[in-house]
Known about the structure:
By secondary structure, the protein is an alpha/beta fold. The chain folds into two domains: about 1-180, Alpha-Beta Complex (Spore Coat Polysaccharide Biosynthesis Protein SpsA, Chain A), CATH 3.90.550; about 190-220, no CATH class. The protein has seven helices and eleven strands. The protein has helices spanning about 10-25, 45-50, 65-75, 95-100, 150-160, 190-200, 205-215, and strands at about 1-10, 30-35, 55-60, 80-85, 90, 105-110, 110-115, 115-120, 135, 165-170, 175. The strands form two sheets. The chain has a seven-stranded mixed beta sheet, sandwiched between helices. The chain has a four-stranded mixed beta sheet with strand order 5-11-7-8. Strand 7 and strand 8 (about 115-120) form a beta hairpin. The chain is globular, with a radius of gyration of 17 Å.
Amino acid sequence: xxxxxxxxxxxxxxxxxxxxxxxxxxxxxxxxxxxxxxxxxxxxxxxxxxxxxxxxxxxxxxxxxxxxxxxxxxxxxxxxxxxxxxxxxxxxxxxxxxxxxxxxxxxxxxxxxxxxxxxxxxxxxxxxxxxxxxxxxxxxxxxxxxxxxxxxxxxxxxxxxxxxxxxxxxxxxxxxxxxxxxxxxxxxxxxxxxxxxxxxxxxxxxxxxxxxxxxxxxxxx
Length: 221
């Protein structure tokens, strides 16, 4: 079974499409672990409108996306784990394509579509988002998102890569990234970027630190 972990925070506008895309997978052995992070909109009503036993809904006081993902990991029951943001969707064959590729490896890395443009993975370390991957649960046991910071995806992915796990890349862009002007990462946060750089330097990853610093430097340019 695949456990989809979906942190939810004021995503009412996008949530219905997200959930529908997960429930309509050609591979039906899935569960949706939806963790509401103290939303103030009507997202809970959207979730309540679905009557599917594969949906498991949890709530927590507002503590940030990292805390919601960490809680979702604790609750997930599947052999495989995938992360999807509440304002994004995936193609109907996303599970099928990734399951077909995960034999013999710890996780599968694919690409995404944004504004009709397909971005495919050229290296295992190209994308720092935890989305667009299917993981064996045992491979990421104990790997936690750093709470209380923005761009925690970068640190989590770096810690994933440091485990020396086996990865297979597939030429597939079935994760549909939504440009949400209200999302945290829709604008720059220089102080948060500096914290990411400090965390990378603390790990002795100067080369990767430099690459990601450049990524931030040219972000939205």
